[in-house]
Design a protein that fits this description.
By secondary structure, this protein is α+β, with helices and mostly antiparallel strands. The chain is 22% helix and 50% strand. The strands form 2 sheets. It has a 4-stranded antiparallel beta sheet with strand order 2-3-1-6, covered by helices on one side. Helix 1 packs across helix 2. It is elongated, with a radius of gyration of 18 Å.
Length: 109
Protein backbone atom coordinates (compact mmCIF):
# COMPACT_ATOMS: atom_id res chain seq x y z
CA UNK A 1 0.00 0.00 0.00
CA UNK A 2 1.06 3.56 -0.68
CA UNK A 3 0.06 6.92 0.74
CA UNK A 4 0.05 9.74 -1.78
CA UNK A 5 0.37 13.33 -0.58
CA UNK A 6 -0.64 15.70 -3.38
CA UNK A 7 -0.28 19.44 -2.78
CA UNK A 8 -2.42 21.24 -5.35
CA UNK A 9 -3.15 24.90 -6.03
CA UNK A 10 -6.60 25.89 -4.72
CA UNK A 11 -7.66 26.86 -8.24
CA UNK A 12 -7.22 23.24 -9.35
CA UNK A 13 -8.42 21.41 -6.24
CA UNK A 14 -12.06 21.01 -7.27
CA UNK A 15 -11.15 19.40 -10.59
CA UNK A 16 -8.55 17.14 -8.96
CA UNK A 17 -11.06 16.02 -6.35
CA UNK A 18 -13.69 15.31 -9.02
CA UNK A 19 -11.21 13.29 -11.08
CA UNK A 20 -10.10 11.24 -8.09
CA UNK A 21 -13.71 10.55 -7.08
CA UNK A 22 -14.80 9.61 -10.63
CA UNK A 23 -11.97 7.06 -10.75
CA UNK A 24 -13.29 5.44 -7.57
CA UNK A 25 -10.65 6.69 -5.12
CA UNK A 26 -11.27 8.34 -1.77
CA UNK A 27 -9.16 11.20 -0.49
CA UNK A 28 -8.85 13.29 2.62
CA UNK A 29 -8.69 16.96 1.71
CA UNK A 30 -6.79 19.46 3.89
CA UNK A 31 -6.39 23.21 3.52
CA UNK A 32 -2.71 24.20 3.46
CA UNK A 33 -0.52 27.22 2.78
CA UNK A 34 2.99 27.38 1.43
CA UNK A 35 5.48 28.46 -1.15
CA UNK A 36 7.13 31.82 -1.37
CA UNK A 37 3.79 33.43 -2.31
CA UNK A 38 2.17 31.98 0.83
CA UNK A 39 -0.76 31.07 -1.41
CA UNK A 40 -3.57 28.75 -0.48
CA UNK A 41 -3.19 25.11 -1.43
CA UNK A 42 -5.12 21.92 -0.92
CA UNK A 43 -3.34 18.80 0.28
CA UNK A 44 -4.91 15.48 -0.67
CA UNK A 45 -4.10 12.28 1.24
CA UNK A 46 -4.89 9.22 -0.86
CA UNK A 47 -4.30 5.60 0.08
CA UNK A 48 -3.81 3.24 -2.83
CA UNK A 49 -2.67 -0.19 -3.86
CA UNK A 50 0.87 -0.11 -5.30
CA UNK A 51 -0.27 -0.85 -8.86
CA UNK A 52 -2.70 2.12 -8.99
CA UNK A 53 -0.29 4.89 -7.94
CA UNK A 54 0.54 5.90 -11.53
CA UNK A 55 -3.18 6.12 -12.32
CA UNK A 56 -3.72 8.55 -9.44
CA UNK A 57 -0.70 10.64 -10.39
CA UNK A 58 -2.03 10.79 -13.97
CA UNK A 59 -5.38 12.12 -12.72
CA UNK A 60 -3.62 14.78 -10.65
CA UNK A 61 -1.44 15.80 -13.62
CA UNK A 62 -4.48 16.00 -15.90
CA UNK A 63 -6.26 18.45 -13.59
CA UNK A 64 -3.34 20.51 -12.19
CA UNK A 65 -2.04 23.18 -14.50
CA UNK A 66 0.87 25.58 -14.20
CA UNK A 67 0.09 29.13 -15.22
CA UNK A 68 1.72 32.55 -15.16
CA UNK A 69 0.58 35.08 -12.59
CA UNK A 70 1.74 38.62 -11.96
CA UNK A 71 2.42 39.44 -8.32
CA UNK A 72 3.73 42.60 -6.69
CA UNK A 73 7.12 42.37 -5.04
CA UNK A 74 8.01 45.00 -2.43
CA UNK A 75 11.46 46.31 -3.36
CA UNK A 76 13.10 48.67 -0.86
CA UNK A 77 14.82 51.57 -2.56
CA UNK A 78 16.26 55.04 -2.00
CA UNK A 79 18.96 54.10 0.49
CA UNK A 80 16.78 52.51 3.12
CA UNK A 81 14.66 55.61 3.74
CA UNK A 82 11.59 53.47 4.15
CA UNK A 83 10.23 54.03 0.66
CA UNK A 84 9.10 50.90 -1.10
CA UNK A 85 7.44 50.43 -4.42
CA UNK A 86 5.58 47.45 -5.80
CA UNK A 87 7.45 45.85 -8.65
CA UNK A 88 5.30 43.52 -10.77
CA UNK A 89 6.93 40.12 -11.19
CA UNK A 90 5.70 37.29 -13.39
CA UNK A 91 5.81 33.87 -11.68
CA UNK A 92 4.52 30.38 -12.40
CA UNK A 93 1.86 29.03 -10.03
CA UNK A 94 -0.21 25.89 -10.00
CA UNK A 95 0.72 22.37 -10.85
CA UNK A 96 1.13 19.85 -8.05
CA UNK A 97 3.78 18.52 -5.72
CA UNK A 98 3.34 14.80 -5.06
CA UNK A 99 4.95 12.54 -2.46
CA UNK A 100 4.44 8.78 -2.42
CA UNK A 101 5.32 6.81 0.72
CA UNK A 102 4.98 3.22 1.84
CA UNK A 103 2.43 2.51 4.54
CA UNK A 104 2.48 -0.45 6.84
CA UNK A 105 -1.16 -0.51 7.75
CA UNK A 106 -4.38 1.15 6.65
CA UNK A 107 -7.73 0.89 8.42
CA UNK A 108 -10.98 2.68 7.93
CA UNK A 109 -13.12 2.38 11.08
Amino acid sequence: MKLIYAIVNNDDSREVQSGITRAGFQATKLASTGGFLMAGNTTFLICSENDRVDEIIGIIKQHSHKRKEVVTSAAESYGGLGYSSGVPVEVFVGGATIFVTDIERFEKV
